Amino acid sequence: MSDQKSSKQWILPLLIIPLLLLLFTAYLVLNYANGRPIFSLPFSSEKPATQVGKTSETTDLEKRLKLANEEIKKLRSQSTEQTNTLKAKEQEVTRLIAERDRLKKTPATPAATSSETEKKKKTANVTDVYAEMPPKEAANILNELSPTEVVAIIRDIDAEQQAAIIAKMDPKKAAALTQLLAVE
Question: Which of the listed residues 77, 89, 99, 169 has the most CB atoms within 10 Å of its CB?
Fold first, then answer.
């Protein structure tokens, strides 16, 4: 019996006292964290003096919150406007691309075609003149022109006449002319 009594004696100092100290410490920490005075009752209906100061802080925080919310609304409306503008620009780009593709598919205008045909007619007339000339005289004149100009003239002359004219030309000019004719 004395052993049982002695074991009960140890329960009080080893378990109950540290448990009470732990609960008291937790109470103090929680009161301090909540901004209440350290030795106040947990459920008192009285407002401590520190809450009066918090009221002004609360109103200040509410004002800042309202300003922040207004700023958010303003930024959202700007974002919406920019999104709408972007969509409009994308539609315009799509429309312009479609217009470009449509214009690419349509044939050239008659004005551009007529100027090209006039140029071809003039070149054909000049080609006829050089085709009728003796090869030596044609070669002397064509030596004075650039090879690209000569190609435009000599291209439509028959192969025998081309060979005779190129044979009478300056060798360097004839080589450049031959290269250009081979490319076309």
Answer: 169
Structure tokens that stand for 183 in this block: 């490319």
Q: Report CA 179 to chain centroid distance, whole Å.
A: 46
Considering only CA atoms, which of 127, 160, 122, 155 is closest in space to residue 141?
127
Q: CA-to-CA distance for 134 and 168, rounded, in angstroms?
A: 10
What is the rounded CA–CA span in Å between residue 65 and residue 43?
Answer: 30
pTM: 0.37
Per-residue pLDDT tens over the stretch 74-90: 999 999 999 999 999 99
Helix (H, G, I), strand (E, B), or coil: what is residue 155?
A: coil
Per-residue DSSP letter, 109: P
Q: How far apart are alpha carbons 105 and 41 in whole angstroms?
A: 89
Please give the average per-residue pLDDT across 63-72, as a whole number. Answer: 94
Contacts of 157 (CB under 8 A, 6+ apart): 127, 130, 131, 165
**77 to 56, 82, 132: CA distances (angstroms):** 32, 9, 80
Cα-based distances in Å from 130 to 48, 64, 122, 147: 116, 92, 13, 15
